[in-house]
Amino acid sequence: VQLQASGGGLVQAGGSLRLSCAASGRTFSTYNMGWFRQAPGKEREFVATISWSGRSTYYADSVKGRFTISRDNANNRVYLQMNSLMPEDTAVYYCAAERSGVVQTDIREYDYWGQGTQVTVSS
């Protein structure tokens, strides 16, 4: 599966952005999907994940209550709605796919990655 993330940009603190990840291939609905982010000088970290069916989601504590992950299997897309953005959310955001059977927060479990989209939150 090939992934392409989009929707990043520059936003003021307290604002919102919606990231989108488009996937190619007819097997998208069999993959659990995740969003990760990497800030300058830091390691890539888990943000959110959603099961292949959309019934299970899991979030990093740092974004819980502010971010929402969702998916549209009919259109091969996964989304990350980001509200109440803070400067510490500034990073390159990546979507990723894995098919282990259960939702994963470990970056090593993900097999396919998009190219990333930059999110910058100004204070």
Overview of this structure, please?
With 123 residues, this protein is mainly beta. The model has no long low-confidence stretch (mean pLDDT 96). The chain has no helices and 11 strands. The radius of gyration is 13 Å and the shape is globular. The protein starts with a strand and ends with a strand. The strands form 2 sheets. Strands 2, 4, 5, 6, 9, 10 and 11 form a 7-stranded mixed beta sheet that branches. A 4-stranded antiparallel beta sheet has the order 1-3-8-7, with no helix packed on it.
Distance between the termini: 37 Å
Order of helices and strands: EEEEEEEEEEE
Give unreliable regions as ranges.
none
DSSP summary: helix tally: 0
Largest sheet: 7 strands, mixed
Number of strands: 11
Helix/strand/pairing category: mainly beta
Helix content: under 10%
| Overall body shape | globular
Rg measurement, Å: 13 Å
Tell me the strand percentage band. Answer: over 45%
Determine the mean pLDDT.
96
Structure characteristics:
4-stranded antiparallel sheet, 123 residues, mainly beta
How is the topology of this model organized?
Blueprint (H helix, E strand, L loop, with lengths): L2 E4 L2 E4 L4 E7 L8 E7 L6 E6 L6 E3 L7 E6 L4 E6 L8 E8 L13 E2 L3 E6 L1
Parallel strand pairs: 2-11
Antiparallel strand pairs: 1-3, 3-8, 4-5, 4-9, 5-6, 7-8, 9-10, 9-11
Task: Please sum up the structure shown.
The chain has 123 residues and is mainly beta.
